[in-house]
């Protein structure tokens, strides 16, 4: 059924339209116009409020008190989608950290089943690990970190059946054959939790890597003698990168610098978790972030709307650009593959 949202300030991604109207049919935007719609169609008057493009989160682990990796089922995905909507996120990549193969395959099958039933709010699966470098594991469980085999990748791809959208790996731990398999399957390869040198990172995009996971976190650091992964990312126009704008994972000044160097290649993620008091990933809310019981930083507590606010207030972005970092730029990455 068709209905209209009228009298709104609408941000198209490039400009603001005043006194504009949106036509929605079957939950899809089919028209944006400044011409008044016919009075005989259902309308909701927005009274001048702002309408923004859908916010997209490419890395989030759960919502509503149900961590997806701990409960890899459709209920977790439904609760995640509902929690996301409250924070401005229309769609996300449901993410699981390093785990054993049984949970990885269960998660892939759960996303596949959920998406086959409509997949509201879920764009696919983001597998962060277990194919990472153990020295850069962060809050990930060390015993499950492993070097990927062709057989493992084949199993995961079969279980996901097209729903594995992104995988975070340490490229220096992956063979070219494994990376080519992922490329051929249309999976976005992201470098993260990586101990790669600057020289190794300069080869990322040539090996099929398209983006980098949570820039500055869990990677070789930017140093004047050993530049690490960040400098290679700054220099490579073919690489995008996500960043967590909570002021805890990364200082806002570092994000400001990265933005000046990368422009539209940098985008926001929340890296958010939810309360979990059982299993290997027990996330405890510690003020404005989550930590493991041993105090290790394990995830953010921000929403994508808060990420946008932080971009404006703390990083110094214009409202338009901060919105694009949470919508247009991640959408380019996720929907172009």
UniProtKB/TrEMBL annotation:
The active site is at 271 (proton donor/acceptor). It is an enzyme of class 3 (hydrolase). Binds 1 divalent metal cation per subunit. Belongs to the metallo-dependent hydrolases superfamily. NagA family. Its EC number is 3.5.1.25. It comes from Phnomibacter ginsenosidimutans. Residues 51-333 form the Amidohydrolase-related domain. NCBIfam families: nagA. The keyword ATP-binding does not apply. GO terms for biological process: N-acetylglucosamine catabolic process. GO terms for molecular function: metal ion binding; N-acetylglucosamine-6-phosphate deacetylase activity. It comes from the Bacteria. Substrate binds at residues 139, 217-218, 225, 249, 297-299. InterPro entries: Amidohydro-rel (IPR006680), GlcNAc_6-P_deAcase (IPR003764), Metal-dep_hydrolase_composite (IPR011059), Metal_Hydrolase (IPR032466). Pfam families: Amidohydro_1 (PF01979). Keywords: Carbohydrate metabolism, Hydrolase, Metal-binding. Its cofactor is a divalent metal cation. This is N-acetylglucosamine-6-phosphate deacetylase. The gene is nagA. Zn(2+) binds at residues 128, 193, 214.
